[in-house]
Design brief:
73% of the residues lie in helices and 0% in strands. It is built from 3 helices and no strands.
């Protein structure tokens, strides 16, 4: 598995030349959050699609 440092370097190298520091930070944060979410799902900590629908319906009724 590719080390984190190499993944970050590759990610930055694949971004447009005029990418700002803010863009890089946003992409890093997004990828971190996705990875954390996938890790939680692998650990069985996720919620089902049906449960998400129930929660959204409750939020929309407010």
């Amino acid at each position: 598995m590719e080390a984190i440092k190499e993944k970050v370097i590759t990610m930055i190298q694949n971004m447009p030349q005029d990418t700002s520091v803010e863009d890089i930070m946003a992409e890093l944060y997004f990828r971190y959050e996705v990875d954390e979410g996938l890790k939680q799902l692998d650990e069985g900590k996720g919620i089902s699609h049906e449960e998400v629908e129930k929660r959204i319906k409750k939020w929309l009724k407010r």
